[in-house]
Write a structure and sequence with these properties.
The chain is 23% helix and 47% strand. By secondary structure, the protein is α+β, with helices and mostly antiparallel strands. 16% of the residues are buried. The protein has a 13-stranded antiparallel sheet with strand order 6-5-4-3-2-1-13-12-11-10-9-8-7, with helices on one face.
């Protein structure tokens, strides 16, 4: 009887340890998704060339579109980044209001006409992170916390065959974003990506790129509201990037 109880206790302890290990196991990117992303980084200029970009400044034009594709509004943003020091700022004027979003590390400040605005802090933090994330694809897909899963092949609207990598951020607090990135099967180039956020889907298409100091950066992108199958419902915006230096 005693031996049976001892065996039962040991067995229960082993099951408990195994279940804890399974529960605490951190999700990881699969091998194929890593290979696809690595190939795309090489196509875009490589990790070494990217590491040499310590400062960057550019102009971004944002056109918001009506459902019929007509322009609703337009604004210009000036982006300035000190990547080595993790500092930067985004400045723009809209309806005669001069806005500036500046950051240093995790510290963020937002001003309107030089007056500090402490509302919507979470929104401005997301804008700060997104500004570099969308610019520095595919390098940003290797950031800590990003988990990639290879999802096979599909064809984009322009008949280009692409490989799909699904990316999530399961260990990043309050980040429920899920994205699918489309890589050209022939060249490895990132052709576009689809984002699911708040149960809405957006598709961002890379229209044109430009070389800057050995790496490829966007010069024009278009975004659309789509359904879960990437069927376009209506246009959202057009983005143009100028004067990289």
């Amino acid at each position: 009887m005693r031996n049976f109880l001892q065996y039962t206790i040991v067995l229960l302890m082993m099951l408990f340890i195994a279940s804890c290990a399974l529960f605490n196991k951190s999700p990881k990117s699969d091998k194929k998704s890593k290979e696809v992303i690595a190939r795309s980084i090489v196509k875009a200029g490589g990790a070494e060339a990217m590491s040499k970009i310590t400062e960057l400044r550019y102009l971004k034009k944002v056109q918001l579109l009506a459902n019929d594709g007509e322009k609703e509004s337009e604004l210009f943003e000036i982006h300035t980044y000190d990547l080595a020091a993790d500092k930067g700022k985004i400045e723009w004027i809209n309806n005669a209001v001069r806005s500036k979003l500046s950051y240093s590390g995790d510290s963020i400040e937002f001003t309107k006409n030089s007056q500090y605005d402490t509302t919507n802090h979470a929104y401005w933090r997301e804008k700060r992170l997104a500004s570099q994330k969308v610019l520095f694809m595919p390098w940003k897909l290797n950031d800590e916390g990003a988990v990639g899963q290879y999802k096979g092949l599909t064809t984009l609207d322009d008949s280009i065959s692409v490989e799909i990598v699904e990316v999530s951020y399961p260990k990043v607090e309050n980040n429920t974003e899920l994205s699918w990135y489309y890589f050209d099967t022939k060249t490895g180039a990132l052709r576009g990506y689809m984002i699911k956020n708040d149960n809405k889907y957006s598709y961002i298409q890379t229209v044109a790129e430009i070389e800057f100091k050995g790496i490829m950066l966007p010069s024009k992108r278009s975004s659309y509201r789509v359904d879960s199958l990437r069927n376009i419902q209506f246009p959202l915006a057009q983005y143009e990037y100028y004067n990289y230096r």
